[in-house]
Structures are given as structure tokens and as C-alpha cells.
From TrEMBL:
This is Small ribosomal subunit protein uS5m. GO terms for molecular function: RNA binding; structural constituent of ribosome. GO terms for biological process: translation. Coiled coil: none annotated. Its main location: mitochondrion.
Amino acid sequence: MSVARPARSALCTRRIAPANAAPTVAVAVAVAIATTTTTTTPRRTFHSSAAVRAKKRPARFQNVKAEELGLMKPAKMAQFQKVYMPPYTEEQLERLRSKYTPAQIEAIQAGEAAIDTKDMLIQGRIRDDPYRPTYVEDYTTLDPRYDVLPEAAEGQGAAQPREHKWLDEQDWMDQFSKRLSELADRKTDTQLTRAMARALRRVKDAQGADMIDLTEEELVELEKNPDMLQKYLVTDDADADAAAAESSADGPNKKKSEAQLTEAQVQKLDEAIEAEWKLELQKLVEESGADAGPSSIEMIEDGPAGLTRAETAEAPELGPVPGVAGRYNRGADPEDAGQDELGEYREIKRVTGLRLAEIKSLYCKILVLRYVSNQTRLGKIRSASIVAIAGNGAGRLGLGVAKSTDNATAVVTAQMLAIRNMKAVRRYENRTIYGNAKAKVGATVVELYNRPPGFGLRVPHRLFEMCRAVGLHDLAARMPRAKNPMNSVFATYQALMNQADPEEIARGRGKKLADARKVYYGGSVH
């Protein structure tokens, strides 16, 4: 064995001499025969398992062959085209002419003539992979999930689709002001209707039980739902005469004093209603910007005991003390079901508008924890610096940074800031990003690459947590330069927020999105 040749190569290479070699041949002849006629087998491994050839990896998307569809013969193909891709009939063309202009009909016919059904049969296909869209777009119908139904003009039965009108700044401000005024008028009408219902209830309880024909249940319903006022209003004289005839028919044996009110009773009732009405208006004026106050029954219903308080002799609950609004700590929110007794999530609920269950369902993670020291005249003050993220797993991601001498305070503050700073991240097919993204913070460069379905997340561990929080499942990343933990998190967040928008690119080129992507007939989109 040569010194320059390792022992492993000699052990792993096996030479087999032919069976007809004579054992009495000289050494030189044996060496020559072995050199020319022996066979060399592959190197054997250092284990006893049998070598198995790797199987060919099957394709992820199996194409349907033309033989399986029976389209190799021209007669079969013609029959398939006739059944599944028939041309427009005269009846269908007449329907189209009733809906479209002659120019649009010519465009439709030109498009039908330009597309060869044979090419669609051979080349086009509908995706059957697990990541395919769950719908086939039909532009002849309106989908309430995506399409906005146009508003119908006055006097027209059904709304007709029309081209969108782009308003200038002045027209948009006028339209916006008109909508705000309509909302303000509606709220004012609601407040006045509720105030009138409460005034009528007090008058009915005091002296007008027989003068007001509305029952207690109807007044309560009117206070809760002000839109019910139209049900009790008399619009014209004919309706008033009909109502009077109905009341006389219901009680023909009643006395005139019971069927109709005298002038003195009417005047007394009007004065009482006007007095109560002024009190309600004064209450609305004093509480400027506030909604009309709830009734006593509603306050009891909103209490801890619910409607059972209405049947007890206990005094009603004391509400907020007048004059100290905003200076006291409110009780626990009943919607929290006792999960936030101390009110720790009250401020974050007010800022974000989320419920407690939605906040607790968010994915929060501490990505960077480092300790810093500040030199003061009292010595070194050690603090904890926290970088946290928060996401809902469906396209929203937030970043929060906090520092405190108490670790728990820093963690909670960073998480709350991350929840408050959540923003939408653009996702392609709800699994990866649009194209490639790159961002640089300091000396750290992060490069993100989109990947096909099933690729997974092949990224560093901090980027992995951010992808899981935002809902990305197929992504690759590189960090060719510095790998500072804090800068890598900031650069990744910046890259996710600054993705290229395909619709803006297509709009800048003056093309449609399908023409900019160059993907037709449901072809490869990965």
C-alpha cells in the first residue's frame, strides 16, 4: 500500500479475479492478468444495509393528458368542443343585443373569433392543485363579497351599472359634507324622538293615561327604536278621518266624553307635553355632543343583575357622579366576561377598537432582549430594551420597542405598542410576498424572495417569527452583510411594508394586470 494512498480507498474498492485464473502462474503474470481482466465493483459502504436507488420525485401538479380526455382524434375533439365550448346561438345573440351596444357586440364577436377553442382545449386548464382559487370569476353577475351594488336613482326600479365618476377635490368635499350633515340630522332626529317618547311616558304616568292612546309597551318600543315613529304618525286628513272612524267603530256605546277629548283636556295635555318637552330639550342642550340619556328601565337592564332588578325594592345603581366625568376609573367592561378586572386592556381597546378576545388572540413574540446601562450621578442604571412583534396571522403585523428598569414593564409596553402599531402587509395568495424585497438598516441588509407553494419558511429564526405572525408560509431570505438582531428585525419590517404593488406597476405601464404578468388561461403563476 502506498503511503500517499489512504487506507479507506483500498478498503472501499474491491477487485474480483476471474474464476479461470490458474493459481500456479507466476506473480508477474498474475498481476498482468489481474490488471487487464479483473472487474472493479463500486466502493462498499461501512454499513450492512442494501443500497437502494432513489425514486424519481413525482411532479407536484400532474397534467391531464389528451389521451385521457379522448381528444387525440379530430372527431372526438369536435364533439368535445361542441358540448363544452359551443358558439353563440341566435337566441343568445339577441339577448346580448338587448343589453349591449352594436360596438360592444362587435367586440365580443371579435374576441370569440380571436380565441381558438382548440388551443384552449390543449393548452388551457383549470387548476386542481390544493392552492387553486376556490371560484371562477363571472363578470356577468355581481358578487356581494367583492362588488358594490350601484345606487339606484329616484324613480328607477333596478340600478344600472355605470362608469365610476372621479370627483375633484371640491366635489368630493361637497359630497362628504352632505353625508356628514345627513348623519348629524339623523342622529338629531333620533335624540328628539327618544326625548319625545320619554316626555309622553311621564305625561301618561302623571295625568294623561286616558288622553294618550299609546300603550306603555309602544312608548318603550318607540324609545328604543325611533324609526317606529312613522308607524304612529298620521300623514294626511284622509288617514285622520279613517282613524277617527275606526275608533268610533271600536266603541259605539262609548260616551262622547270618552271617545273624544274636550278643548280643555287637549289644552291641558298640550301644556304638560310642552313642559316635559322643554325639560328634555334642556337636557340635550346641557349634554352637548352626548346622546340622549337612557331610561330607568334601560339603566336597570344594563346593571349586573339585569331585569331582576326591576322587580326588587332595592334602590337603582348610582351612575357616574355629575361633574367628574373622565376623572374616575370605570368598572370592568361587561363584554370582557370578567377577564380584565383591573382594566389593563382598557386603553389599548380604546385606541385600536378591538375587543378583549381579539386582542388576546393576537400572536405576540419577544424578538430582541438586551440590557443597557446609563451612567448617572447615582451610578449605573441598568435597563432592559425589548423589541416585540404582534400579528393576527392574516396579513397584519406590528412592531413595538420599549425600555424600562423593570423587565415585566418593558415587555408589556413593547407588546401593547406592537398591537397599536399593527399595519397591513401585502401578501400574494395569502402565503408569500409579491416579487423580491430588499431593505437596509445600518450595516444590515435583508433580502426576501417569494417562493412557490409548499416551499416553507427558510429564513433566520427572528424572521421566521415575523413571517408566522403576519401569515407568510413560503419565503426565503438572505442576510449577506451584518446580522445585528435589532437592525435585522427593523430591516425585515421595512422590506415587508415596501413591497412592489403589481397593480401600480401595470397602471404605470398602461396595461391590465393580466397583460403585465403575461399569464393567460390559468397558466403557471408561481
